[in-house]
Design brief:
Blueprint (H helix, E strand, L loop, with lengths): L2 H7 L19 E5 L6 H17 L3 E5 L6 H9 L5 E6 L6 H4 L7 H4 L1 E15 L8 H10 L4 E5 L5 H13 L3 E5 L3 H10 L4 E5 H9 L4 E5 L25 E8 L5 H15 L2 H9 L3 E2 L4 H22 L6
Length: 321
Amino acid sequence: MNATRRAVLALPFLAAPATAQPAWPDRPVRVIVSFPGGSTPDIAARAVAAHFQQVLGQPFVIDNRAGGGGTIGAEATARATDGHTLGVTIGGPGSIAKILNPQLGYDPVTDLQPVSLLARMPFVLAVNPGVPARNMAELIAHARANPGKLNYGSVGAGSTGHMLVAEMAARHGLDMTHIPFRSVPQSVTEIVAGRIELMAAAAGAVLAQARAGQVRALAISGDARMAQLPDVPLLTEAGEPGAGIYAWIGLFAPPGMPAERVARLSQEAGRALSNPETARVLEAAGFEPLGTPPVILATLIRDELAHWGPIIRRLNIRPES
């Protein structure tokens, strides 16, 4: 068990009150996943739902609501009032979406109740091998010497990968062009083909390509080096900000779910993700399985708002930009 997982699981869970509570669930529970079947959030959600079903004695039914970069499913979770709905989504729709789009129909901070941080992975800043840069300093120098000639990709304006590179470009005065794509596989295909020069991708999206030499990994966000890419330094080791920036998957409830219910669900999520087979599947996709108390997810959201909010406003980032 890694140090991060040991640390989060050592934190106390909320204790259920001594007074008797009505049995829950007393009918099937819907688990809204903000992404398609087969996606990593879907894999994590199904593993947790299967465990919940086993220990809580009612069906936990996956409802994939993809679209809107995850906001459609997250809003459906936020608006549920039946007392038997949960949601699984990622950073963005689960944290900063309202800052990016003030017209959004829900606010993650007030309309989603954190239950558990299920898994996370850092971002990898990668370049096509044709870019003559083997570290961050060389990349910045190359971009500075070639204004307007480098294109960087992402899965959409306002995505974490976009903001990581956009903030770096603004901080160093670099002139690069952002090219948004509709999906992670499409953006990876484009960087491998050399039609874009660089991108910050969730690590699992480019692990195979980095190992095969199809892209060159220059740096990793997060707090520790990745076991899968041990020779790639952290952004902070390269003198750039980027500690604690992760792609993540979270379990949420609509607002108002009783604290003892949230505590039980978060505790069982931790047990589900400690299953060796579940952990193996998530680790193969580049994720670090966690399953934390609610406070860990709530703190992560607060930190993302504090970090990205000023950057979004300063760079005037909007989903369509």
